[in-house]
Amino acid sequence: MTSDSTVPGGDVDPFRNERTSRDEAPQFVLPLVVRIERDAPPARTDALETAARAVLTILSDERALGDGEWAQVMRDWQDARIRKVVRRARGAEWRRAQALPGITVTGKSAEVRVFPPVPLDGWPKDLARLQVSGTDLDDPEPPADADPTAPVLWLNPDLDMSAGKTMAQTGHGAQLAWWELSDEERTAWRQAGFPLSVRTAAPAQWAELISGERPLVRDAGFTEIAPGLTVAVEGHHRVGELGDEGRGPVG
User: Fold this and answer.
1) Which of 88, 80, 78, 22 has its CA nearest to residue 51?
2) What's the rounded Cα separation, in Å, for the pair 155 and 233?
3) Where is the composition biased (Basic and acidic residues) (predicted)?
């Protein structure tokens, strides 16, 4: 495993609510915008999975690595608290968001655009004016069983979160999985199109998931919910077995 595959900043948890050394660094946030048209909202599970893939896409983009144009701000963001905020857009709002530097990732019905991190109080005006509320989404049909050959981001069954809040949490889970991987495993996952599933765990299953050594997201409790565990990542070790099939993200 390469040195940058661990949590940046060593073993200081970037999601805990307790104050840590990460709080002394300049604070940034990773903006994500989900397209929610009035007459054609995306399915909830597809939006959650697309948001997770959007985070992985920007983490692996050449502009975010090495000497790329987004690399320094990506490093600064990961050295501080790992914050993600999801806003919604439709119509002209979505078109204005598309014109800003970023990457749009598409799912079966969802479109999510992820942008390089911005200062906590320095959002571009076309993103700052977008609403955080109103991201409630539904699944027209119950999602199928999770793909056993790809990572699964399991949601805490005891929590009631909006789709926007949950999208941020699945993004955190995907990022934790990414940090656990070697360069070779990351390449395999990316070439396969970042296959993954998001599902809500059964209560007994959740108890088992959080008792092991799996990556766990601990929300700091700033919005919607009290501090605590939100996502458990299962199967991230399988990415090294993936082939090069799959659909990649749209830039």
Assistant:
1) 88
2) 9
3) 13-23
Helices 44-60 and 163-179, axial angle in degrees (round to 10): 40
> Model confidence over 174-196: pLDDT tens digits?
999 999 999 999 999 999 999 99
Which whole-number Å values give the CA distances from 185 to 79, 83, 164, 182, in the listed order? 23, 25, 29, 5
Residue with tokens 């595959």, as numbered in its chain: 5
Angle between helices 183-191 and 44-60 (to 10 degrees): 130
Longest CA–CA separation in the chain, Å: 47
Which residue from 168, 173, 201 is spatially nearest to 85, judged by alpha carbons? 168
Beta strands in the chain (DSSP E): 28-35, 84-89, 103-106, 111-114, 118-119, 152-155, 197-200, 216-219, 228-234
Nearest alpha-carbon partner for 105 in 229, 248, 224, 219: 248
